[in-house]
# Entry
Amino acid sequence: MKISNVSLVALVLVALLLIACGGGAAPTQAPAQPTTAPVATNAPAPTNAPAPTNAPAPTTAKSNVTITYMASQDWITDAEQELGKKFEEQTGIHVDYQIIPSDQYFNVLQTKLNAGEATDIFGGQSGVTDLKLQYNVEKNAVDLSAEPWAKQEDPLVAAQATVNGKLYGLTYWDTLGNVWAVNYNKDIFNKYNLSVPKTYADFKAICQTLLKNNIQPLFEPVSDGWHHVLWFPELGPRYEQVTPGLADQLNDNKAKFADNPTMLDDLTQLKELYDLGCFGKNALSDAYADRTKMMSDGKIAMTVMSTGFPQEVEKDYPNVKADTWGFFVMPLADNQLLNVNPAGPTKFIYSGSKHIDEAKQYLNFLMQPENMQYYIDNSPRANTLPFTGAKNKFTPELQAFFDAYKDKRGTVYQTAVNYVNPQWIDIGKDIVGMFSGTLTPKQVLETIDQRRADMAKAAKDPAWAQ
Amino acid sequence: MIRNKVYPFYFVGGALLLYVLFFVLPSVMGLYYAFTDWNSYSPEVNFIGLDNFALIFSSSQGYLRYISNTILFTFATIVTKTVIALGLAVLLTRGVRRLAHVHRMLIYLPAVLPMLAVSLIFKSILNPATGLLNESLRNVGLGFMAQKWLVDINWAMPSVIGVDTWKGIGYIMVILIAGIEAIPREYYEAAEIDGASGWQAFWRITIPLLMPVLAVVTVLNLLYGLKVFDVVFVLTKGGPGHATDTVYTIIFDEFSKGRYGVATALSSLLFVAMIGLGYFVIRFMHRDTEA
# Structure
């Protein structure tokens, strides 16, 4: 009796294990399924029947649908939320904005995409590598090439949201009229007789003068995990100037970050600025959300912000006028070139969404000329949008800045070089490690190389095949 | 034989089926994926032997640091929570009589709060520039003690351990109070008659008789410590740099990067460590009580 009981239990266990082994093949194939029988194939269907997209924001039949849109905290502006309310008034479609803290956004998004539970629209940074590696848009996003606005988009910007000839995202962001530059307080510079730096030595001297006069030279919000990284890949044009063809060599796996002396200079100088106290005593806990507050009281002289920052400060603190601020390019590694990034926060429609048509309606609504203009006029950071017909609101100062660098510009490395942008937050952690003394600048570069190799091998990049 | 008659074997069938289906099978499958290159970039899943484990244990990748951080966190929280909770438990059973239940409730209160809420509050309290702690220290003339609690590489881990201890001691204390109250008072009376001091009674009566409860508490703390995630993620996100990254924050990180194979290898490693260490602790402390 006892034996038969034991054997029965054993039998059940063996049977279950066999089921598990038999079923085991299915899960191993599971990741293949979406590519062999792509979910995305369901997605183009609505584009074949584009009736709703050609009739944007219909006012007749209102639906009671709610579409969800998840993005990093700074990507959804007040102006867009206002447009969302207007959209709901016209169509009955409610847009539920899910705003995630920026330092956690990519983890949350990746987890949701990997689990097949993304929102109807999700935000992501454009850039061909990111589209393939971070978001796997061919599986996770709907092809938007046939949308009426697709041809309006600046070709340089659209190329960053295109994979294999298909446009997957709407880059509703001021990528071209808004660059990351050092915004400096002209009053402080005038008071201490300082002028725009041309080299790193000039820049360091400015910081030291300010420190002597108890002015914090720079506001650097490290706690968000991403902002301080700008100092490194945004200087791509300089790396390219010193080593022509470097981006291609890096993409072909014929060069390494760790072997590049200009990159090493950049990080070494960044560390020196931190050690000198140029970022203030609380840089590691300073937050990007406090940027206008921190810069409004004239106690900090400079910060790396977008060129729309002066308008942001004026909006929050009307007594601090936009013309208080001037601009210059980040001068680490003696850089004197303007950093241009045609990639930016982009809206993708999730291929697994049940409301693809409604999501398309929302994007079409945003692209109507009056709504684009409303967005530009009411988003302090947007000077224009990368679409034909969009007007700009450059200040004379900003126009002069762009004119000065008209022929001295290049593409930033997070866009020009593969496998850099997907590790942005990791690089941020490494740089904090460098600030704290646990990593050297050289080790930071080696770690970047290592992560690039890991990603490239996982993606079966032929350049890393050997 | 009698037992067989009272409880037929198939009584366990349903539970066994569910157990196998929801616990054994996922674990076995998880172990299998730990030996593959499963990732989100490629639809193929290939068997790669011990490569994932070699990666984890290679010195160049930093995983060893996350493992040592996890061990440090686990060891420190076991010691701090158990010692403080034991002290409070003794105090509130043998020492403080007046309003003892109110004190117990107040100390237990943090245990019922969500870790997310506690961590967010402490993140604000520990802000070096505007936080309550540093402001208070400065206001009472102890400004020299103000630290960059969560952003200084030397203070981040102790701060995380401190917050976790604050939240966890109430729960441990309640378990220990139950254990202490189960010790017959006669032992203490007999010891008192024999002239034993309070300290001697504590070491010779309370501790030995509390050992089974201490074993349970240690195992609970051990398992909690090894799989710590939320408090670290909210307070420091593993920073500054990677100073407070633990195995689970890295598993989350690897999974979100789509490197499922490495993430599964890490969680399998943790699974084995939890079983092994839990078993070892129970055996060790049980043997101690028997001795």
Observations:
- Chain B touches chain A through 46 residues (CB under 8 Å).
- Residues 105 and 170 of chain B are 8 Å apart (CA to CA).
- Chain B is about 70% helix and 0% strand.
